[in-house]
Amino acid sequence: MLSDDPGTELVFLYGHQCRDGMMASKLDRAVQVGLGTARGSLLSVAGLPVMVSGDGLGKVRGDVYRVNRKLLDELDEIMAEAARIVGNGNCRRKRITVIEVRYDRPPMEVWVWQWEDLEGPQELISSGDWVDRQATPWFTFIALTCLLTCTLIPGVISTAAAPSVPGFAALWVSLVILALLAPLAGLAAVYIARRRTERLSGFLMVIEVGLLLVLVLVLLQVGSLVFQMFH
């Protein structure tokens, strides 16, 4: 079944191409048609999902989207950059047949990006689902914990007794150190989570923005208190 909407095409996206991955900023302009499977093999090369045509036995799981021609060209550019990162083989957009897995629909003819002539280290994802390759999101949870923790600290600092009050100097200094370290530790966890291609990676940008905002707020509060101490 070809795209039945004039001026649009169906594309099959797998692995890290989907909404929480490299094409996330583009897919808001696409319409998800459904989930599907295609014949082929899913590999991990340089930490990225790579689909190759299989021997008829393997299957790759992914999402089918309807996109316009302009967006299709933009996705081509993203995959060209992915091919540069992979560093070997040829990535080409091809027509394949995808079987929808949830509803009783006829097979769909879609565009997909496949690799040829790959060399070097490769890891076969036997299930065909990139989620099975992604790491457990331990560092994502650590980053979220840091965010939840450090959002409380600016308020504590602003209401805590000033260091000049006897008995509170050590507590105040400890809070300042914790307030500065918590967002920095969270940002480090975000970086590691991205490197590990953890699951739930779609939340990392939100966590990162929150940590940066808290860090700026903490620096402003600490700077204001230090200024008051010496004036």
Automatic annotation (TrEMBL):
Membrane-spanning ranges: 138-157, 169-193, 205-230
Please indicate if the UniProt record lists S-adenosyl-L-methionine as a keyword: no
User: Per its UniProt record, what CDD domains does this chain match?
Assistant: GGCT_like
Domain of life of the source: Bacteria
* InterPro entries in alphabetical order: AIG2-like_dom, GGCT-like, GGCT-like_sf
Instruction: List where this protein forms a coiled coil.
Output: none
In Pfam terms, one family for this protein is: GGACT
Q: Which residues form the Gamma-glutamylcyclotransferase AIG2-like domain?
A: 11-131
Instruction: Report keywords, A-Z.
Output: Membrane, Transmembrane, Transmembrane helix
What name does the UniProt record give this protein? Answer: Gamma-glutamylcyclotransferase AIG2-like domain-containing protein
The species this protein was found in: Luteolibacter luteus
